[in-house]
Amino acid sequence: MLESFASGGYRVLAAIAGTPGCAAPPVLPEGQELESLGRLPLEALRLPQDIVHGLGRLGLRQVGDVLRQPRGPLARRFGRPLLDALDDATGARPRPIQPVRPPPVFSAVRHLLEPIITRPAIDHVLENLLEELCQAMEHAGEGARRLVLRGFRVDRVVQEVSVGTGAASHAAVHLFKLFREAVGELEPDLGFERMVLEATATEPVVRTQAEMARGGDGTAASPGALPELLDRTRQRIPISRPQPLSSHWPEYAAAPADPYMAPEVPKDWGKEIRPLRLLRTPLAVTVESAAPDGPPVRLQCGGRVYRVLAALGPERLKPEWWGEDLNRPIRDYYRIQTAEGPRLWICRLREGGAAPRWFLHGELA
What we know:
The protein has a 6-stranded antiparallel β-barrel.
């Protein structure tokens, strides 16, 4: 072992003894533990400095000096830390060794006999790397959240591309699809002579039992189908999932959220009928009504005139007492079926004694 470290340029010390506390280079024969330990200074026990100074004032400066003393007076004066250190060193109390285990490194390497330049050759090597890496992660119960592919060129230039996933995955086919566009950014020049694939971020993968289809040829959808679809889509465009919020104002009823997280739906959210398409900026409309506070019978928006066949409402929305916009005007919403076809969602704003204003806020399904 020492020779192996030395060949790598490391200087190390190694020791063998009957107990971990007596191990001192190089090898301590069995039965000589206490004799060897007794010649060591008290600092070798890694005791607190106040205990070392207290023992020194009593003339006890070596471990052997302390071992020859009665344990009762030592315990009353210096407490358990001193006795625990002595027991650990002599082996009187077994101490299990807990080695520091680094997290598993998931990587795969290919040393190529001939440099590769073409895209089919790079894809072939990537498929082999993914297959090896995913098998190792599946065996360990882990899945990749981030993968890095490095290509080492003949001219000693290193290029790399990376992909990320929303949910941990060790599906080689899915991960290969994520690399399709990223691999196009590599410039092999004179060719890659070595390629390395590494999972730089992993998470445990929860195994789920597949459902059994009964009758016919129906098959159950894979639990990872949606995360895989989101991963592929997010390589091209930004995506999000609406998160319902506790607000009855339409523009505050939802907000963009992580598409991989299940939304938390507030109580009674979604019971009100809302438009399929909500306008980011409501459009001002001109409305004719049969009565001052009655439903509209005709409206004009953007140069187009609509005749109202039926109107449901009003649905009145008032300022939320817990919100910041307490001075917001009251809104009266109507669901409108027009003779021209579109079903519209319009509102009337009441601002004090001023004449009400009308706006188109959305289009119903």
